[in-house]
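Hey, quick one: can you model this chain's 3D structure?
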Amino acid sequence: MTEKAQSSSYVLDQAHPDERSRLEAMAHMWDPGTMRLVAGLGIGPGHRCLEAGAGTGSVARALAGVVGPAGQVLAVDRDTRFLDQLPAQVEVRRMDVMVDDLPRRSFDLVHARLLVAHLHPHPHALRRLAEAVAPGGWLLVEEVDWTCADLLVPAAPVHTAIIRALQKVMGGAARDAISDAAGGETAGFDATYGRRLLADVLSLGLTDESAQYQGVQTRGGTHSWLAWRLLVERFQRDIVAAGLLTEGEVEAWWAVSHDESRLVVSVPMFAAWARRPRLDAP
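Sure thing. Here's the predicted structure for all 282 residues.
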């Protein structure tokens, strides 16, 4: 079946007043791991990097520090409102990677985090990103998987219920707006894509493929709960309206989210990377 490209089905309104705070909370959690992966791929001074779905620009800013004044970073997002106060070697472009053509075979590193799970079909999105990788360069993609997202110590059934409700409303939020004609994939956020990411990367025909996943466990508190609180605040009316939880159950979840005695397990972040062969490779 021929895959039909779709515009990004990003279900989180980037104009929402708390969107920058949500993105910054996730950057605080995941940026150190991202930059360790970047270092492991040998990215350094003078290299050219593409940051797709650049968000607040935290990774683009860090990449600028890695590649130095002689390097270049292109930060693209379909909404660039948060891409401000970036170093001089960072160029910002407003682009939808499913519609707008990226510079072909131009970058030593093409990186995307928490982006492809919103794009359908996922393999088509990855191929568009991979086309921007220069010979000898790397594609690095990171996606979460919500399978363990409900783990608390001690356990709280209402937290399991809220995670499942979020997954349903975020996964279905774009179904009516976008006609899915791409092999049965559902438009909207795919909360379990992380575990399938490597399989799609392996289909690209690149080399030196590898993958890992990581997560963190912390005491309950404002920072560890912030991203979840902002999501629930954003979608709690939809959750109640859909009959997934009652208002009382949502209020019970809010009480759990303020319990600092609990241990919180983050969602695991899966990363997969692969290399385009050099022009002189056998």
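One thing worth noting: Residues 19-40 form the longest helix (22 residues).
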